[in-house]
Records
---
Amino acid sequence: MKPFSLLLLVVSPLFIVVNAWPNIRDAPSTTVDIQDGQTGTLMVLPPRQTDTGTKRVPDSDHPFVAPGPNDMRGPAMNTLANHGYISRNGITSFEEIIRGTGEAFNIDPLMASGMAALNLLTRGNPFVDKISIGGVSPLIPPLPGQIDGPETQGITKHGRVEGDASMTRSDVHIGDNRNFNQTLWDMDLEQLAKFGDDGPDGPATVFNLQTLIELKRQNLESDQVLDPEFAIPIRRLNAVFGTTKQATKRIISSFFMNQTFPENWFRAAAPVLGSSIPGEIAAALPQWVPGHNDANGVFVADPQPPAPFNISSGCANYWDTLVNAVPGTLADVTGIFKQNVDMLNGILFNASGCSEPIAPAGPTNI
Ligand SMILES: *[C@@H]1O[C@H](CO)[C@@H](O)[C@H](O)[C@H]1NC(C)=O
Ligand SMILES: *[C@@H]1O[C@H](CO)[C@@H](O)[C@H](O)[C@H]1NC(C)=O
Ligand SMILES: *[C@@H]1O[C@H](CO)[C@@H](O)[C@H](O)[C@H]1NC(C)=O
Ligand SMILES: *[C@@H]1O[C@H](CO)[C@@H](O)[C@H](O)[C@H]1NC(C)=O
């Protein structure tokens, strides 16, 4: 059967990682850095996987185990955690995200490191190199000195990366933004029934470009009306459009509803590094620019980023992320904390197309 990549499961909302990888850090730091009673962990880009072709996933080392009551789960990465491609407790790290998404989905480390960097900088503790794929966890301390408030949130927390107009989760101001919403999925499936291609599982079961355009249009239109505080800043709009190659109803349903790999599933045949689909969806929906509802529920466009950050959508996205979603207190950290923050920011900057980097400047404790 044809391998499908499933970026949307990790990209939008966004993601996490593996205790199946015994020693992820190949170059442990010799410098010990203790801040506020926490021991820093220097992040290291893991080496590329040597096997980069397709293969059956999961393998026998990664059986499905339903999460226990203390395991974190959230809007994304649940399948990876249920199979141990990231830690089954839902507390993961920079390296685990890269390894886990590479192993299970063949996501290229360049792309995975961008996703990991975004999540660690906005909702993790990048000093100890930990992030929760759900909510607040006793296993992750607040940032040293509590410079982003008394708790480290997880990726479920609304406002920085987690946002509106998801395909299967409600806006936080409408309902439950963490768990799968059958009503939303049924609405998506109506678009699939109208626009989908025929495939091995039957008529109108394959998500083609037109289906993705129509269901994103519907997600955006419906949430703009229902959610008084609807907001899609550029960093969120990019994530909403950030979907992937063709996939089928059977495959996507298995990930969304059962949070497991579909039967007989094979990962992508080559490392996955972005796709033209988000750009094609954006081009088909030109009325959906970055913006938010005003006090009267009228959708208004956000201001453009200042020059020189307005040169491209990628650069505008980087600007929005650093200025509005990465806590500004991260600009003043020291030691291993600073080395990690600088590396994560460098990853985002390198992918941005901007001509100059930006220091973190976002609000704290939100
Ligand atoms: C699911 O989505 C529908 C449609 O937006 C909404 O009316 C409902 O409140 C949502 N349910 C939950 C539990 O969030
Ligand atoms: C979910 O799992 C159940 C039990 O194994 C199965 O019957 C059902 O077909 C699965 N649903 C999807 C969408 O994969
Ligand atoms: C960026 O902003 C500057 C200053 O407002 C403006 O002159 C320039 O045309 C803008 N560039 C783009 C590509 O929009
Ligand atoms: C960013 O790109 C520069 C130039 O290619 C490279 O030297 C640097 O290591 C990259 N930074 C990160 C964090 O990947």
---
Amino acid sequence: MISGTVVIATEICKGCELCIASCPQESLGLSSSINRKGYRFATLVQNNCTGCVNCALVCPDSAITVYREKKAAKRIPQTVIASHAV
Ligand code: SF4
Ligand code: SF4
């Protein structure tokens, strides 16, 4: 399973919200504070990013970098089946 996270260059962001609309996980929202240009900037609001990169692809200012990692596979208990030679 893949999980992801994003790093947003907050000083580049102009708060257009394209990334927010493009996120299927609703992981992104606008900050309550503003950057030096006077814009509320995009930020992660939920820790459920899958690393799909939609947000980075739509950002007109290339302000988003996506990181992905493979989650460790769940360990499934294995049943040992003893074979008895007859
Ligand atoms: S990488 Fe995908 S899931 Fe993660 S914040 Fe961007 S659009 Fe949402
Ligand atoms: S698409 Fe880019 S510029 Fe627009 S809000 Fe998202 S990070 Fe900011």
